[in-house]
Amino acid sequence: MPNKRNTPPRDPQLQAVQDKRKAILDTTLRLITSQGYHATPMSQIAREAGVAAGTIYHYFPSKEDLMSQLYAEVKARMGAALAEDPSHEMSYKMRFWIFWRNMYNYLKHNENDFWFLELFAVSPIIKAEDVRASARHYQSVIDFLAFGIQKGILREMSPNLMAALIDGQIKTIIRLEIAGHETITDKMIADVIQGSWDMVRIN
Amino acid sequence: MPNKRNTPPRDPQLQAVQDKRKAILDTTLRLITSQGYHATPMSQIAREAGVAAGTIYHYFPSKEDLMSQLYAEVKARMGAALAEDPSHEMSYKMRFWIFWRNMYNYLKHNENDFWFLELFAVSPIIKAEDVRASARHYQSVIDFLAFGIQKGILREMSPNLMAALIDGQIKTIIRLEIAGHETITDKMIADVIQGSWDMVRIN
Amino acid sequence: MPNKRNTPPRDPQLQAVQDKRKAILDTTLRLITSQGYHATPMSQIAREAGVAAGTIYHYFPSKEDLMSQLYAEVKARMGAALAEDPSHEMSYKMRFWIFWRNMYNYLKHNENDFWFLELFAVSPIIKAEDVRASARHYQSVIDFLAFGIQKGILREMSPNLMAALIDGQIKTIIRLEIAGHETITDKMIADVIQGSWDMVRIN
Amino acid sequence: MPNKRNTPPRDPQLQAVQDKRKAILDTTLRLITSQGYHATPMSQIAREAGVAAGTIYHYFPSKEDLMSQLYAEVKARMGAALAEDPSHEMSYKMRFWIFWRNMYNYLKHNENDFWFLELFAVSPIIKAEDVRASARHYQSVIDFLAFGIQKGILREMSPNLMAALIDGQIKTIIRLEIAGHETITDKMIADVIQGSWDMVRIN
DNA sequence: CATGAATGAGGCTTCATTCAT
DNA sequence: AATGAATGAAGCCTCATTCAT
């Protein structure tokens, strides 16, 4: 990796280390989403990441743990995309709309992340603990919804339930889009956001 | 199959055969949902179903095929639960409401079926072909939604998309309920159904 | 099997029994020669012979024994073809020639028998005992060679060795012919017979 | 490979690797020839070769491929023994004699190689491709025979057929010798070589 | 006699993980 | 830190044989 010379003068040792760790995580994400967990052996991850099999175990104690860490990274990544809270000067509905699109855009343009989350949302490999630990990345959305309820803009409903319902809608539409069973037009997206809004607002 | 009760007690041979096949399917469903696909060996299925390992292969050519057939059965089962279309004399909204509750009740009281569908909705093990083959069980719902749109009661939206969105909402709430992260009251259910209705109806 | 009515008025029961036994042996021969022993399951033999799996075990105690009996039958069959000793009035060389062609013709027109013998000549499944038991079918040839040696027509050489060498030559040419690596003309056959003769006769 | 003795004792790593591969091949040869293919499980090969079951799969992708590679090695080994062409100053007949004895000696003193070739000459496990690939090791013999024909010393006959016939004779006599059905004296060998010679030479 | 569902030992192979270098 | 050969438990599946009908 001689072409890394113009990166900031950080510990090149650490840099290399991080490169390898990242290569492993990226390769894992790619392979898991396309092949599934049980069809992706560590040896293949090693090969395609360009490291030795044993090397993976310097960074991750086990395959299961590799998944946990990857899950945490993906969740954090999406959380970051969501957190781009629009200006507070906009109307509440507009901010709702933008949150919704942020998440939609992120998942649509990061298919691997999307499928990985779909896969591991139901996998026994990801433990409740991992799920809980990642919840904090979505606090900004929960807060936003709680604020809407408090202001009397949204229905009286648990913000967690509300967030889950909206999350479900976004993922539903992306699933249809990716699976290709349905061609999704901009109008359809707008309809669904409007539907989401109608679902949660005070009528 | 409510018309099975008065069939004569025919062919105990066939009965035994069906019992074994059923025992395998039931055991598989139970184990897969609690342990996941790759953590459930055929040997365990055999043991807990009370048959020899080889016996499974009289009924199912491979583990993968066992999953396909189980998927088809579960889908058919849920389709049957849904198909109990309420009287046509009710208002459209009431019928919508009942469809919703039919599915909700079915999944809530058949947790294994629910988790199995969640698992295999995203598994590479279930092929697009299997999914397509099972779609026909839901035709009655699609028809119902299409009818609502045509009558000007529901928004102009693809009935498939609409069905997927509602399906997503029902599953979201059950997920929360089962995971126990959220205590779901009857009022919450009513709120969500109302939300679903608000999402799709002409405002 | 209603079309068996005009066979001699033998015990039709026995007839049916023999039919089944024969069907099993014939099917086994066909499958073994084309697939090999370990690639031919009893279940396939049963299916293609038109009997139930268990039925085979009424006629043959085990797969191994089925092979032994088939081996004995094939050996006897070829022995019978050989035994058509030409008239004693011919010259010795002519009789030699005819023995040679009898065997050649038999094997060439009964490819399955040929391959079966090739296969089981070296298989640990056929025991020395089986081989010994079948040797008697070739006594007429051994006697013929011994006679030639005694008369001073053939070299002083063990008749068994001599028979084995000739047998080897016939099988070699058929192997080349069947494998198709070499197109065998009548002249080549004649050459090889002449070679065989030159090999054993007093020069 | 007589020029191996003076190579330096390089790379003990590579040495160890080759040792393991060799141990597997040697053990396989020994077990297959005494038990047959389908009676020799990979687990036994591993145990008797002193490696773990999985280790075999580092060197050979499958049992079938292990056989192919072993076949190629044995063929090459025998080809090397044959290739020790006697001096060109000897008479043609003497050179013929020595070729014959080279092969005879090799097979007689390498019984396992002999049986392995006998076994796999007729096994569906060895594919035509493997056979073809190994043919080149025998080119020197074919050339020698072709030369004899061209010089008018041997009959007009396809050199391939001629080689196959001689090969058959050598194997026939070794089979008798090993099977122990016949005690083979030096005189008998000489008789058979003479017979071979009489078979192919111009009379 | 015949059937064929059922058995379960055992075969081939995979793969997460270790460890000597 | 990195390597990758080696391990061996465990998985899926086959198949000769049995036995209740």
List the helices and strands and how they pair.
The structure is a homotetramer of 203-residue chains.
Chain A: H1 12-35, H2 42-49, H3 53-59, H4 63-82, H5 92-109, H6 111-121, H7 128-135, H8 139-150, H9 159-179, H10 186-200
The structure holds a DNA duplex (21 and 21 nucleotides).
Keywords:
10 helices, elongated, 203 residues, DNA-binding, disordered N terminus, Tetracycline Repressor, domain 2, 2 domains, Arc Repressor Mutant, subunit A, mainly alpha, homotetramer
Description:
The structure is a homotetramer of 203-residue chains. With 203 residues, chain A is mostly helical. The first copy, chain A, folds into two domains: 11-60, Homeodomain-like (Arc Repressor Mutant, subunit A); 71-203, Tetracycline Repressor, domain 2, CATH 1.10.357.10. The first copy, chain A, has ten helices and no strands. Chain A is elongated, with a radius of gyration of 20 Å. Chains in contact: A-B, C-D. Chain B binds a DNA duplex (21 and 21 nucleotides) through helix 1, helix 2 and helix 3.
Topology-level CATH name of the largest domain in chain A: Tetracycline Repressor, domain 2
Q: Please name the fourth-level CATH homologous superfamily of the largest domain in chain A.
A: Tetracycline Repressor, domain 2
**Number of helical elements of chain A:** 10
The two chains with the largest interface, and their residue counts, are: A-B, 41 and 41 residues
- On the 0-100 scale, what is the average pLDDT of chain A? 87
The biggest sheet of chain A amounts to: none
- Give the number of domains of chain A: 2
H-E string of chain A: HHHHHHHHHH
Structural class of the helices, strands and pairings of chain A? mainly alpha
How much is the radius of gyration of chain A in Å? 20 Å
Strand content of chain A: under 5%
What is the end-to-end distance of chain A? 59 Å
Assembly state: homotetramer
